[in-house]
Amino acid sequence: MSTDTLIAGAAAGARHALIEQQAQPADHALAGLRPQVRRFIEAHRRDGHRHAVLDPLGASQPLDAEGLSLAGFGLSADEPVAADGSAWQGARTVQELDRLLKGAYCGTLALDASAVRDDDRREWLQARMEAAVSQPERGGKRLLDRLVRAEAWEQFVAGRFPDAKRFSLEGCEALVPLLDALIEEAAAHGLGEIFMGMPHRGRVNVLVNVLGMSPADVLDYFDPASPHPERHRDLVYHLGGSHRVTTERGEVAVTLAYNPSHLQSVYPVVTGMALASRTLAPPAQQNRAMALVLHGDAAFAGQGVVMETLALTQKPGYSVGGTVHVIINNQVGFTELNLMSAARSRYCTDVTRMVDAPVLRVNADAPEQVLRAAAMAVEYRTVFGCDVVIDLIGYRRLGHSEHDVPALTNPGGHARTQHKPSVVALYGAALVAAGVASQDEMAAYLVARQSAAVAAFSDKRRSAPAEAQPLQGTASVPFTHSALQQAVAAMTRLPQGFEPHPQVRSLIERWKATSSDMQAPADWCFAENMAYASVLGAGVDVRVSGLDVQRGTFMHRHAAWHDQAQQAGEGAPFIPLQHLGAAARFDVVNSVLSEEAVVGLEYGYSVQASRALTIWEAQFGDFVNGAQVFIDQYISAGEDKWGYRSALAMLLPHGHEGVGPEHSNAHLGRFLSLCGEHNLRVAYPSTSAQMFHLLRRQAFCAERKPLVVMTPKVKLYKEPGSHSPLAQLLAGDFQPVLDDEQVSSPEEVTRVVLCSGKLHYQLRRGQLQHVCAEVALLRVEELYPFPAETLAAMLARYPRLRTVVWAQEENLYHGAWSFVRDDLARACPAGVELQCVSQPNTASGATSSYAVHHRQEAALVERALGVQGPQQG
């Protein structure tokens, strides 16, 4: 069969009307058929994919044909399909019906709709499979040309650089025309932007043949004698890029995201990019972006971030209107066979059953059916706004990489691939059989097209290196007392009849009182909300995402208020920051119970929405380790490797409070170990004003860098001393170091204790208890980039200084000491002794006993103040 030209060529509006006409009779027409005939049809719709000819190697056998035989349903070939002799889909006899159903469901394109629980969607899919199709307009020599070019690229690189690792596409060359068709179908449906992610397999081929990257630029990565090694910031099969693809149906901007070796990690990143594009576009264009994610078969089935992201994208605030998934299925995972099983009905795509996604399985050696699958997938996603999967089933002619010896682990399978004709040879022969050309003409045509491709690949012209474009800085707009009062008034103006919770009513009264008195203490909740209000008022969008961020884990944010008069689940919450009258957008969305997928998505969002303030907050800071791949490979290194600018802010509740190892440590030391070349900002604020200014700085700073913040938990949120006077919010900026304002005679100070976060308040209480007038308590609020010069200037204020103590509530190696020690030494005046005081090292890092914690904290404070002997670091 071939692609349905009628449907492929229709305009979007007419196309939808045709779909409705086709979908209606799919089940209604069954009513007039005899019961055995209905069961025969339903069996093909349900199980036809298990009988289809999908594996080019024949290693994964379809089910025995007897399972869908006429005899098995008590039917004979010459009997009518309906008692009155009428036809069904043009078939009058059972024999004609059998031929129609086998062609529709058991060929080289098959539908697995077993996960689709919605009747309308399932009937739509069945109607499309059963529709008569004709020669595709993009088939014939045009399709053959694309296959030749994909094959020729692999042979060309192998000839030039036989030892280069490129993760060859050989065995799945049909991926190139598949991507062509997906892009063209997207244009036909009015989509103007595609955000694409993919694994290593075939990436180099796609860069050249789909994204239009200069072959010379790609070959430069393989060349040991490259004249431009300084451009190689990552491996060639990790590269991404952007390209405007011109199709007959319009132009589409295609962005291929860069990808580290953690293959599926790019899936949530691409989703975040698409979400940002859709969210921040004008209302009329918010459906013009599509996520297209390519997967390896073994990684798709095996890596948990896939399941997390599938679940996440079903939730409001994270949905991108459906993702088109393509499995580059070579039926091998590294060296382990990953064959599909029709007998057991087990496939690598089974994880998508959790989101009711249909799967179009297509034989990679049937390129016309590949094009048909593309048309169906894009239209299904457009019509229903849901995920859809194309399982492109091919093989791997070479090993896992070109350095592999596949016969060591898969001798039988490898032997089959070495003697198998390529898809170019097979499709060329099919065109000869169809009368498109004679055998001699086809042979000459293939030689000419291969020569032309090689000539194009041999072009030595390189692209000029892309220069990083400076971001236009957003000026930090002052937040006046008048503007703050207007914001509070707008945010506390409740809808008519809205009944707030008593705690929210109390919060409203506190906010009003705080806003009217410059010396009133502004707690952390007030400061954070006012920071967002000021940023929105300056025209900068804000997005806050994470588990329970609307309320906040410690009931510390209250960004969404629920009407207590409503029944459970009724009515949307009132979100005060969405009622400022600002042109900027504020989103605060509770995620599913996930760290890895959410952090990846928010990173992608922050890269695409480069001027927005994008925030992810962990429920507890410890849980960020569930997203370690994104911390290590994307957030800390993405700018250096790929030029990705991200200003993602991660709020990580941190602090030892006697609540156990899993709720104490946001891995401050681990983040500091990733710092270099000013790639991150790491802060640990101790006052509400500092948090206010830190968030504003992150929103307005023209130099976009990720921000890691050790944020409060219960004790610091409730610490009265940390609630800054309102005047401190309205004046000044974030200070990387806070001096001791209670020192009236600097010449009496002989000991300075440095710390970060809530430990300062325990030290202050200890100082008052033990009457340590010779001690000054300084707070280092930004740990990277380390404010060495500022700290040195402050320490110079104390002429009789003899000892500087770094105090941390974490274990010696879990906190900042190992990473700030050298900077501290340089900042200290000559002759000053530098010490470290920390908790004792334990395997788990924190106690779960409040009594033990209290004793440990008291002892640490005494050692830091010099009441007990120091613990040397």
Description:
The protein is of the alpha/beta class. The protein contains 30 helices and 24 strands. The strands form 5 sheets. An 8-stranded mixed β-sheet has the order 1-9-10-6-5-2-4-3. It has a 7-stranded mixed β-sheet with strand order 13-12-14-15-17-16-22, with helices on both faces. The longest helix has 21 residues. The N terminus is likely disordered.
Summarize this structure briefly:
The protein has 873 residues and is α/β, with parallel strands linked by helices. It contains 30 helices and 24 strands. An 8-stranded mixed beta sheet has the order 1-9-10-6-5-2-4-3. Strands 13-12-14-15-17-16-22 form a 7-stranded mixed beta sheet, with helices on both faces. Strands 19-21-20-23-24 form a 5-stranded mixed beta sheet, with helices on both faces.
- How much of the sequence is in beta strands? 5-15%
Count of helices? 30
The biggest beta sheet reads:
8 strands, mixed
What do the pLDDT scores average to? 91
Roughly how many Å is the radius of gyration? Answer: 32 Å
What brief labels describe this structure?
873 residues; alpha/beta; 7-stranded mixed β-sheet
Write the layout of secondary structure elements.
Elements: H1 5-8, H2 12-28, H3 35-47, H4 94-105, E1 109-112, H5 119-130, H6 140-160, H7 175-188, E2 193-197, H8 203-209, H9 215-222, E3 241-247, E4 250-256, H10 266-280, E5 289-296, H11 297-302, H12 304-312, E6 323-329, E7 332-333, E8 336-337, E9 359-363, H13 367-384, E10 388-393, H14 411-418, H15 423-433, H16 439-457, H17 481-491, H18 502-515, E11 521-522, H19 524-537, E12 542-546, E13 586-590, H20 596-608, E14 613-617, H21 628-635, H22 638-642, E15 649-653, H23 668-673, E16 681-683, H24 688-700, E17 707-711, H25 714-718, E18 724-725, H26 726-730, E19 737-738, E20 751-755, H27 759-770, E21 775-780, E22 782-784, H28 788-795, E23 803-811, H29 817-827, E24 833-839, H30 850-865
Parallel strand pairs: 2-4, 2-5, 5-6, 6-10, 9-10, 12-13, 12-14, 14-15, 15-17, 16-17, 20-21, 20-23, 23-24
Antiparallel strand pairs: 1-9, 3-4, 7-8, 11-18, 16-22, 19-21
